[in-house]
Please model this.
Amino acid sequence: MPPTGAGQRPPPEPTTLRPVAGEVSVLILLLSTALAAAPRTPVPRQVLVPPPLDAGGPLAAARLTVKIIDGVAARADGHGRLRSAQPGALDPVRQVADRLGLRFRPLLTLDTERLDALEARAAARSGRAQPDLQALFIVEGPATADAMVAAGEALQALPVVEYAFIERIGLPPPED
Model:
């Protein structure tokens, strides 16, 4: 290196290119995590309408389904009751269920690992937080169409319930 005069800086050291694959991977992971953390917009609540009566019985072709808000991590316990890691979070739901004789079972029957993987993959691809798919439940107990609507309205009025809806099931596909 040639000598430098007073007040002059020495020339910069030559830089070498170094592998950055690991750093790029970490950056991609951080960005995808940040994007996946973008909040999810809850599904809007709807007016519940009694299902039409079928020849097979009053509720043969309909069911009441509810979605508990994300973050509560609501799960059915196998005895028709809901549980959560957050103490007291589901107390209002339990009170309505006890009053109306309601039981809950998971809407989706895939194992937990598959649902978690599905949510993670969707979050990574979309850049948005995904709904807690394990917090979707079929509500059992209402014996009439009016009771189904009343149960859905009572549940939907609770802040911990994202939405309730009455779903027609077993309908044939539309024809051309």
Observations:
- The two ends are 83 Å apart (CA to CA).
- The longest helix spans residues 21-36.
- Residues 61 and 171 are 8 Å apart (CA to CA).
